[in-house]
Design goal:
By secondary structure, the protein is of the alpha+beta class. It is built from one helix and seven strands, in the order E-E-E-E-E-E-E-H.
């Protein structure tokens, strides 16, 4: 585990231990050791480029990372931050139940996308024969 020693809210100094999954450089951000967040690497859904307008930039519309307050012990101090747009403000904090609901929606979405892919493949094959 990495350790970070930095200033506290009250003006003192404290040392905290980062969980193994934390990728935050607390020293770089000059974080207050008793009031900062450990964050995991970001997971992103990166769609392929537009097939018609290939120069169109595609930003990941969905990203998630684990976040944990450095000193708070209550369950609300840990969450998965789900970003649903380009802005940091466009997101929601999810607890375990929220992540479970999201996973169910992702499964439903994937099943529907597989069905659409199969229909697209059938249409494509039919048009290539004609």
């Amino acid at each position: 585990m990495r350790k970070y020693t930095g200033p506290t809210v009250a003006g003192g100094e404290a040392t905290i231990e980062c969980p193994d999954w934390c990728v935050t450089d607390h020293a770089y951000w000059d974080d207050q050791a008793d009031d900062c967040f450990h964050k995991s690497a970001v997971l992103e859904v990166v769609p392929p480029r537009d097939r018609v307008v290939t120069a169109r930039l595609v930003h990941p519309p969905l990203a998630a990372n684990l976040s944990l307050h450095s000193t708070a012990k209550e369950p609300a101090a840990a969450c998965v931050w789900l970003a649903v747009g380009e802005s940091v403000a466009d997101g929601v904090e999810l607890n375990v139940a929220g992540v479970d609901k999201l996973l169910a929606e992702v499964d439903r979405f994937r099943a529907g996308l597989v069905e659409q892919r199969e229909l697209l493949a059938a249409i494509d094959a039919e048009r290539r024969r004609a």
